[in-house]
């Protein structure tokens, strides 16, 4: 079942023009299962925000049959927009027509190659999280860069809804299946990408982004500004010989029975993403919730528990000396309802 994303306890509507709100993307890594409660915490390296802009649309929708897929090609209907937020950086661009709109967001919460992609489109209506779906880059489009995603409703003016696909964190080189880090993304690789392709079954949607080189260069300038705002040196962070490493598994940072039940006791799911500042001793010196979907209590619980339980081996600078740095963590909140007890009949 698709649900409308909720951020900081508030719902939002994606306007056909511009509602200034944001979509967000989860990507689970670690899991906790205990009794009726299910949470999972993920450790990510780095990433960034969003507002929506679907302005006067002018596009061409074509149908072809590469690899037995019916491909809908949507051309850009707006220029790139950079959102230099206080906690994240995101690039947004509209595609398609007023009758068949789409919106792309590329978001980072810090420097590095990782990013979150959220694509909202009418063509995705009817898809579910059980759908087998992949995200590829064009023109090559050989190996997918992401295949894990969350589906959400995005209401638009007039009472209709679009479907948003919020992909797990990835890079322009994807992720290696053996768990090792992918090759570093170069400016040449970014400039060679001219489209993004979402494919499922015998269908596909292609967004004609044009070369991404200049857009991603602007993204790097923005994330460098983020690092400075945290009191860190972007040049030092880019040249670290080691990043902070958790001393304990992140899935132990949030107690499995810590779901913050509200007064309505509705058992709603949620997603919280936070950035931890880690000092040169490996201690957590600060916690900032960057995104929170669901009850506001999720954010308070996340920072309270991670600040008290998380500990790290500190980052190391180029000379191998301990240095202050940062770490990103995400928690997905769910309640696993207990099975009903069936009593024995009396004879």
From TrEMBL:
Transmembrane segments: none annotated. This is TonB C-terminal domain-containing protein. It comes from the Bacteria. Coiled coil: none annotated. Residues 257-334 form the TonB C-terminal domain. Gene3D superfamilies: 3.30.1150.10. InterPro entries: TonB_C. GO terms for biological process: transmembrane transport.
């Amino acid at each position: 079942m698709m649900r409308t994303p909720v951020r900081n306890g508030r719902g939002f509507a994606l306007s056909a023009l511009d509602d200034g709100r944001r979509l967000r993307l989860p990507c689970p890594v670690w899991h906790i299962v205990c009794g009726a409660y299910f949470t999972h915490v993920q450790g990510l390296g780095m990433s960034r925000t969003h507002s929506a802009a679907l302005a006067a649309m002018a596009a061409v929708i074509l149908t072809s049959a590469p690899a037995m897929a019916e491909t809908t090609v949507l051309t850009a209907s707006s220029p790139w927009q950079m959102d230099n937020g206080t906690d994240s950086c995101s690039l947004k661009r509209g595609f398609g027509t007023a009758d068949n709109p789409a919106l792309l967001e590329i978001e980072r919460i810090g420097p590095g190659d990782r990013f979150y992609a959220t694509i909202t489109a009418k063509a995705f209506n009817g898809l579910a999280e059980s759908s087998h779906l992949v995200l590829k880059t064009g023109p090559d489009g050989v190996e997918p860069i992401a295949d894990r995603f969350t589906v959400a409703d995005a209401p638009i003016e007039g009472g209709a809804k679009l479907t948003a696909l919020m992909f797990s964190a990835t890079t322009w080189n994807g992720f290696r299946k053996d768990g090792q880090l992918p090759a570093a993304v170069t400016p040449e690789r970014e400039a060679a990408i001219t489209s993004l392709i979402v494919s499922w079954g015998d269908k596909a949607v292609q967004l004609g982004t044009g070369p991404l080189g200049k857009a991603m260069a602007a993204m790097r300038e923005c994330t460098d500004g983020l690092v400075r705002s945290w009191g860190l040196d972007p040049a030092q962070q880019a040249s670290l010989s080691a990043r902070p490493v958790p001393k304990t598994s992140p899935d132990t940072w949030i107690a499995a029975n810590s779901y913050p039940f509200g007064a309505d006791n509705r058992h709603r799911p949620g997603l919280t993403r936070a950035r931890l500042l880690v000092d040169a001793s490996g201690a957590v010196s600060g916690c900032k919730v960057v995104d929170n979907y669901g009850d506001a209590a999720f954010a308070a619980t996340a920072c309270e528990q991670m600040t008290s339980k998380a500990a790290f081996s500190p980052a190391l600078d180029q000379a191998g000396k301990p240095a202050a740095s940062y770490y990103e963590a995400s928690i997905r909140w769910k309640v696993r309802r207990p099975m009903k007890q069936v009593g024995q009949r009396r004879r």
